[in-house]
Amino acid sequence: MDIALQTSMIVTVIVAICESIKQLGVPSRFIPIISVALGLGCAFLSSGFNFLSIASGVILGLSITGGYRLVKTSILNK
Q1: Long-range pairs for 45-48: beta carbons < 8 A, 24 or more residues apart
Q2: 11-46 pLDDT, tens per residue?
Q3: Residue 71, SS3?
Q4: 3-state DSSP assignment of residue 59
Q5: Which residues of 17-42 are buried (b: 16+ CB within 10 A; e: fewer)?
Q6: Which SS3 state, helix, strand or coil, does residue 77 take?
Q7: Can you say whether the dihedral through the CA atoms of 27, 25, 45, 43 is positive or negative?
Q8: pLDDT at 77 over 90
Q9: Radius of gyration of the chain from its Cα atoms, rounded to whole angstroms
Q10: Structural contact between residues 18 and 35, judged by C-beta atoms closer than 8 angstroms
């Protein structure tokens, strides 16, 4: 599978999971921690436990959080 397609699928799933968790009543301040943990988990599953997977998982989780907040503040004006 192409890496861009795989990454976009993972991003979509993590955003959906984080939004579902937030709807269950978890405070919004914990969502970045949850998204980083999910990003790490997905990176470990796809490439094993090494430095590259740790770095890519953290970057993936933080970019998901930042991208969501960017859309929320700039487009939705919230």
Answers
A1: 46/6
A2: 888 888 988 998 999 998 888 889 889 988 888 887
A3: helix
A4: helix
A5: ebeeeeeeeeeeeebbebbbebbbeb
A6: coil
A7: negative
A8: no
A9: 13
A10: yes
Which amino acid is present at 33?
I
* pLDDT at 1 (0 to 100): 61
- 3-state class (DSSP) for residue 24: coil
Query: What's the one-letter identity of residue 70?
Result: L
How far apart are the C-alpha atoms of 78 and 72, rounded to whole Å?
6
Q: pTM (2 decimals)? A: 0.75
Q: CB atoms < 10 A from the CB of 61, how many?
A: 25
Residue 57, class by beta-carbon neighbours within 10 Å (0-12 exposed, 13-18 middle, 19+ buried)?
Answer: buried
